[in-house]
UniProtKB/TrEMBL annotation:
Protein name: DUF2798 domain-containing protein
Transmembrane segments: 9-30, 36-59, 80-101, 113-141
InterPro entries assigned: DUF2798
Lineage: Bacteria, Bacillati, Bacillota, Bacilli, Lactobacillales
Keyword list, A-Z: Membrane, Transmembrane, Transmembrane helix
Amino acid sequence: MPQNKKEGIFFTTIVCFSMVLSMSAYNLLLHGQFSLSNLLVGLVPGFIVAFLFDVLVVATPAKKIAFALPINKSKKIHMIIAVSSCMVLGMVFFMSMYGVVMQFGFTQNFLGYYIGGFFSNLIMALPLQLLIVGPLCRWILSKSRQSNWLKEKNQISE
């Protein structure tokens, strides 16, 4: 897990980008609209929206909820699963809304589209985060940490 602000920003960025890329491809495939051009067109705006939701809306309450759960907080894996699961629930809640608005707009069927989208996204996003993206991004973070480029520099001038 990130140990300083620079690592936190790096980790959030790579997790967010990986999830947006994967979930965008999944949703395009699900709706029979997958093409590299469709994926690339939606990637940057989707990433920006997801990053803002993550940092400004979801992360703080998700972590508070995860830390309040009756789990063994001394076990790192329990905390990772709790925080990741809460983050996924929050992000799927907002990003499904974003996806429905982008795909269909605010129509009379918005709620139906949203509920369907929420559950189809949740069944993909949760295992994707817990089994692939989370472990891969934590590994990338550990390798980056070993290379020392993520360490925050001492700001004291000589």
